[in-house]
Amino acid sequence: MRLDKLLSNLKYGTRNEIKKLVKQGYVKVNGEVVTDSGVHVDEIHDEIIIMNEVINYRPYIYLMMNKPQGYISATYDNYHETVLDLLDEEYLRYDLFPCGRLDIDTEGLIILTNDGKFAHQIMHPKKDIYKTYYVEVDQPLSQTDKDIFLRGLTILDGKDEPFTTKPAYLEVLSPYKATISIAEGKFHQVKRMFQALGKQVTYLKRIKIGKLKLDDALELGEYRELTETELALLLENDDK
Ligand code: URA
């Protein structure tokens, strides 16, 4: 990759600004000052230093975050903070975006990446990747609720079109607490499914996507990179 392209991708400045920095001797490649910003570098193996900062370039980044309430799952919002506001500068150099959405008042597992193909693979409804939520409701849960969710029920999607849910798996933990696994992700789907049973969701947290569990060690608002094993797990089908 051209040096100026690499550095501008990493948001060290515009191509022109980078050209100046390079000319002024602020950039070293493998220990040698370079003065031509158009030079080609091996972004993975070369040691590139800009203003004494070593660049650790990776084409793709995959993060697991424990999303807190009050944050929007988007890259930009006029009114609210977004999940990107929780990231350190190191990660803001990459154009990360959240894979799929959690409501502003939903907590839990969200993946951030800059790999569009990967995001498509895990979020596409046809892939049938089950997402598991821990849920608290205002009315007692019963065996009948479990059966209804398993059969599928008709709710409105985000555009008020009726829509029949795929089999969903409810595990009742106590009268007001459960986990539910659903394969789709329509607008407010979990809340709407419980609403259809006359119950309001009072707390919602995503705890699993496919076989990938939210790391218990992550406090709300914390995140970390996924391991190779976890990445592979995400692409494996499927485990309710
Ligand atoms: N279902 C919901 O209702 N809200 C979410 O944030 C996720 C699933």
Give a description of the structure.
The longest helix has 9 residues, at about 15-25. Strands 5, 8, 9, 10, 13, 14, 15, 16 and 17 form a 9-stranded mixed beta sheet that branches. Strands 2-1-3-4 form a 4-stranded antiparallel beta sheet. Strands 6-7 form a two-stranded parallel ribbon. The chain has about 240 residues and is of the alpha+beta class. Strand 8 and strand 9 (about 105-115) form a beta hairpin. It is about 20% helix and about 30% strand. The chain has 3 domains: about 5-55, Structural Genomics Hypothetical 15.5 Kd Protein In mrcA-pckA Intergenic Region, Chain A (Roll); about 60-125 and about 215-235, Alpha-Beta Plaits, CATH 3.30.70; about 130-210, 2-Layer Sandwich (Alpha-Beta Plaits). Uracil binds near residues 190 and 204. Uracil binds near residues 189 and 190.
